[in-house]
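Researcher: I'm preparing a figure for a lab meeting and need a structural model of a single chain. I don't have an experimental structure, so a prediction will have to do for now. The sequence is pasted below. Please return the structure as C-alpha cells so I can convert it later.
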Amino acid sequence: MSTTQRDSSATFSLPTNSVGYVAIGAAVVTGVLHLVLGIAFLSQGGISSITAILTQTLPVLFILNGIGFLGGIGVYLSQYWRRELHLIAAGYAGATIVAFFIFNGGFSPVVAISKIAEVTFIISVLYLYTTE
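Model: Understood. Here is the structure written out cell by cell.
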C-alpha cells in the first residue's frame, strides 16, 4: 500500500492507497442505495398518516444523503481533497447511522447492506486519515 501524495497539479487523480478504493466502493454502495430508495419512497408519495411530514421529508433526505456520498467521491478524487476531510466524511457516515436509529428505521437486507457499507466507509476513511 502506498501512502504517497496524489498529484496536486491534476484536477482529478486516483487514490494512491488501496484502502481509498474500499472507501469509494462503500460510498458508492450506500450512496446508490440511498438515491434509489429515496426516489422510490418519493414516487410512492401521499401516504396519509400522523407522520405525513416525514413521508415527504424522509425521501428527500435519502436523496440528499445519496448525493452527498456520491459527491464526496468526486471531491475525494479532486485536487480539492485535504487530509482533514477524512474526519468530515467519517462524521457524515456516522450521522447517517445515527439518523437511521433516530427515525426508527426497520431492518431489512438493504438496510444491513447500507449500514455495513457505512461502517466500512468510516473505518476506511479513518485509516486513510492516519496514513495520508
